[in-house]
Amino acid sequence: MPYEPLLLRNAGKPGSETIDAYLASGGYQGLRRVLKESTPEKMVEEVKASGLRGRGGAGFATGVKWGFLPKTRDKPRYLCINADESEPGTFKDRLLIEKDPHLVLEGIILSAYAIECRTAFFYIRGEFHQGCRVFQRAVDEAYAKGFLGKNILGSGYDLDLVLYRGAGAYICGEETALLESLEGKRGLPRIKPPFPAIVGLYGCPTIINNVETLANVTLIAERGAAWYATIGRPPKNTGPKLYCLSGHVKRPGVYEAPLGVPLMELIEERAGGLLRPDRPLKAVVPGGSSMRILPASKCDVLMDFDSLVAAGSMLGSAAVIVMDAGTCMVWALLSLARFYAHESCGQCTPCREGTGWFVKILERLEAGQGRPEDVDLLTDVANKVEGNTICPFGEAIAWPVQSYVKTFREEYEEHVRRKGCPLAATATVS
Amino acid sequence: MPLKGTPVKRAAHAGLLAATYLPSILKGMWITLRHIFRRKVTMQYPEETWKLPDNYRGLPALVRDDQARVKCVACFLCEYVCPPKAIHIEAQEIPTGVEKGPKVFDINMLRCIMCGYCEEVCPEQAIFLTKEYTTVGVNREEMIYHKDRLLEMGGIRPDPIKKWAHLTAEAGSGTHR
Amino acid sequence: MAEPKEPQQPPSPPPGPALPAAGPDDVSLLIDDRPVVVRKGTTVLQAAEQAGLLVPHYCYHAGLSIAGNCRMCLVEIEKAPKLQIGCATAAAQGMVVRTQTARVKSTREAIMEFLLINHPLDCPICDQAGECRLQQYEAAYGAGRSRFNEEKVHFPKRYDIGRNVVFDAERCIKCTRCVRFCDEVSKTHELALFDRGDHAIIGTFPGRPLDNPYSGNTVDICPVGALTWKPFRFRARVWFLRDVPSACAGCARGCSVNLATYNNRIHRITPRQNMQVNRFWICDAGRESHAPLSERPRLAGPRALAACKGGPQQEAAWEEALDRAAELLRETAKAHGSGALAGIVSARLSVEDLHLARKALSEAAGIPRLGVPPHVEGEDDHLLIRRDRTPNAKGAALAGPGAPHAGRVKEILEDVAAGRVRALVVVGEDPLGDGLIDAAALGRLDALIVIDWWKSPTAEAAHVALPSCGYGECEGVLVNFEGRAQRMRAALRPWAEAEPTWRILRELGRRFGLAGEYPTASAVFDEVAATVPAFAGLSHRALGGLGAVVKEA
Q1: Domain made up of C26-100: CATH architecture
Q2: What is the mean pLDDT of residues C323-352?
Q3: Res. C52 pLDDT band, cuts 50 70 90
Q4: Do A347 and C174 touch (CB under 8 A)?
Q5: DSSP character at residue C398
Q6: C or N terminus of chain B, fewer CB within 10 Å?
Q7: Does C461 touch chain A (CB under 8 A)?
Q8: Burial of B111 (0-12, 13-18, 19+ CB in 10 A)
């Protein structure tokens, strides 16, 4: 049975980013229904019932997250939309923003209504020039048509949306660093607790949701939680998901499938299989660069939150990075480590010093100056970074280091023994 | 109180031959004669000097590195550790390279006991005990050795560890990675 | 990167080991099996401190907000899967905290290793050596070895970050205490963290160096040797210094300070925590208030004019100079009546000095008018600095000749100029140098007796100049603008023949029949306590380290 795309139903059609096209395809009907028939409380219940889990990385149940807001109303509540999509290998939110901004916008308005927020902030990655332009136009259109602003669709509900461009720091995808950045400060993660639901933007209760999560809220509003909960692998992994395939595949790109699609089906059928027939699959990072790597032998796995945890990794942002047999795992990790060393915010000790240390060790290994003790040192330093940092950035570098070294230990030792990279001549990334 | 004692026994009492002192003289000359053929032990000091073992502890002195830089950074550890308090240092800021060095470095050689604690404690390997042991001066002031004299005594001591190389090469301007 | 997990429901407190009962505003918890009761809102680190346990930390400072970035204070809390930072975790009822487990220890070792991999090994030239947290904690919690064999990250060293502060970026551990100080305490916002990762660096904004009246505190709170105080740079190694607790005499605040002395010299002044006065801070001016001691020419011994007027000052023995002073005062009183005598007494002097100024000059010598000049400069600021620069104005009002009063001083000096006052006693003031009177007018006096610690212009013009102790050379009590009496302590031996002012006044007074014994400053203060109601019940001992509030009517 061919899968009918839900999130990407409009993407790719000409003019899909305009409000006219969106309205013509039945857009904003969910919003109309909810504003007319529902209440914020019912909306929260509906999202809870749908089983929707956050698409940003951690997979926390969205409705439950909304429920953490304090019951008091003495302070304004804010909704922040995390569109600072910077995880290497991840480009799904960008597609939604550029190709179907109103799907996202409708989800934002619905979610803001559900949590009784009057001002929402759309924090978009600074490098998304096109996305920013498209989304600003969408916001302007929505204001013009009365979907944003005062008294939306005559319901008495007011919502303003502020589009805020980041300055291109990976760390600002971490929700509290995002808040700091939004407040005009340096993007440094905050200490938790207190969590943003209690003390967030400008000290007020704040919900931070991912772009794709909010697009899913639109679907729930359109067709109901009961329908939504049947998609994927109920009860805990429901709904459609965007998967970003990159690396050594024939057709890299964003593909939509329900949660729980087999990983190999994505690689073989959607992305057209491996790039070069002479090089078999070596490993896959299933959830964006900060997740643990799966060797080819473990790639027979379903792409959903719980199956991947069972397999020893995580769904993360569902960015599937495929590596074939020509990939040097030291080089791959070095490449990642350089990224993380560059992006570490420099606030807390283990991450600030550890990320740079990884790079130095890996550079030596790759250059043939490795020492036998370096292999264990990498793991040990990673163990000392993991869990001891302010934000999950520590894990984001510790997990790859731990898993690459553990899974491909032989290759690291080979680098030490042969004083260099055995694959140096062939290693490529397409 | 009158002194009491026993009279000295003169040679005369020992007999006539002894009274001539000849046996004693000959005995003495025999000893002298024997020593003529033995290895000489007298050293013609100061033309000749002792051959000192490597671990000999003589007067302390300051050394320069192979770039003729004063190695001492005026950390005051030797002043702190010196048992007879013979060392007096005043630090100064140096505009280039290593930030700090001695403005005044005095060792009072009248106090110095050549224990070698200063050499042992020095984190920069800047002070060493030389094999010099002749200290002369006509007044106390002369026995306080100042920085220049100590550096002259120590001379240049090449060091394989170039701890400050990155600073001395770029004259204090740090570089980002 | 994964989004952080939302908070779990707090676990219900376990039945566990017996916890002490806590009041409604308290919580009780176990730290290393020690029961502790603390106020609600106390952090685990502070609770441990109350229980006498040190949780090592770099970025935490009691006077600043919580940053939680050094990760040194990670402790194990039962039911929390990860280690938690003690500085940011609030103590909760029934919490079980462990600070000595193998996991905590190995994490501390790891944090020390991380902090040191890019830290230069320049302890021999670093002024912080000896009071450096890195040294202390590496000895106590570190592994004592390094596995780092790479080139360290290099940064600017000896960076001139402000008027009085030098920054060594290589030594910096990015605890951001200095940044937070400038944001939260001085509120001048000069510093910030720039760049990222292991090349993150503290810096200033273009054209705005670290230059505020409190910049020295960033040096104090820097746990390593990254920020150094220019005037103290390379002056002394800290292990030679001896801290003497005292009070600052720079303004009416009277901050609690430590005078760090070595070789009979104050090398630096640092704040001493006193939550009632200055909390943790002092101003830069107070920090350098010891400088005049070595910069200004001192009065080495008593000096007196030869019998003929206009001759040069000559050194004199103490007895001789005191006799001469008494004789001059007596002669003037005889010739022109006691109305021709006046005195100017400084409110920078201690309560003891001022008390004896009143006893000796007013009561014994019969000087009818004593003026106390005010010293006012600028405005009170938001933190510590007071426009009233006299540290003991309140003491002068309560126990001395009266509160500072510009009009009275002006009147006296006008009378000097007009020849109505023929003999003037000046104690600790410099009216000539301060421009309150000109040299010609002062020259009309038959007798000018000056008691001061330095060769001020007034002292140079005196008929008799008597050397008193400078700041830090004598004991005494100051009463700040809020009425808190604090002790100044003698940290140095008096310079040359200098004597405490109260003792000079005692000797002068005795020449006019002053009766009291007054063997020590503390005995003088006991008399103040016995005779002045505001000081009732106080004594040097009772004032202790933090002082006590006088009872004002």
Answers
A1: Roll (3.10)
A2: 95
A3: very high
A4: yes
A5: H
A6: N
A7: no
A8: middle
Find where tokens 């952090």 sit: C43
- E-assigned strand segments in C284-429: 303-305, 313-315, 341-345, 369-371, 423-427
Average pLDDT on B20-26 reads 89
Check CB contact under 8 Å for C69 and A174.
no
Structural domain count of chain A: 3
Please report how many Cα atoms fall inside a 13 Å half-sphere around the Cα of residue A189, on the Cβ side.
27
The residue among A300, A313, A303 whose CA lies nearest residue A239 is A303
Chain C nearest-CA residue for B171: C157
The region, left, alpha or beta by phi > 0 then psi within -120 to 50, assigned to residue A3 is beta
Dump pLDDT digits (tens) for C402-431: 999 999 999 999 999 999 999 999 999 999
Residue of B nearest to C126 (CA): B75
Nearest CB partner across the interface for A65, out of C6, C147, C200 = C6
pLDDT band of B169, cuts 50, 70, 90: low
Give the CATH number for residue A42: 3.40.50.11540
CB contact under 8 A, C157 and B80: no
Give me the architecture of the C303-471+495-518 domain, per CATH. Answer: 3-Layer(aba) Sandwich (3.40)
Question: Cβ separation of C196 and A377 shorter than 8 Å?
Answer: no
Q: Name the residue of chain B whose CA is nearest to C168's CA.
A: B174
Best residue in A48, A209, A353 for a mutation probing chain C (most C CBs within 10 Å)? A353
- A404 has a chain C CB within 8 A of its CB: no
ipTM for the predicted complex comes to 0.94
Q: Which residue has the tokens 């949590």?
A: A115
Interface contact B73-C169, CB threshold 8 A: no
Q: Give chain A's radius of gyration (CA, Å).
A: 22
- Paired with C369 in beta bridges are C342
Residue A78 DSSP class: E
Reported as a single tens digit per residue, the pLDDT across A164-189 is 999 989 999 999 999 999 999 999 99
Read off the tokens for B56: 């000999």
Element containing residue C464 per DSSP (H, E): strand C464-467
Residues A375, A392: one domain? yes
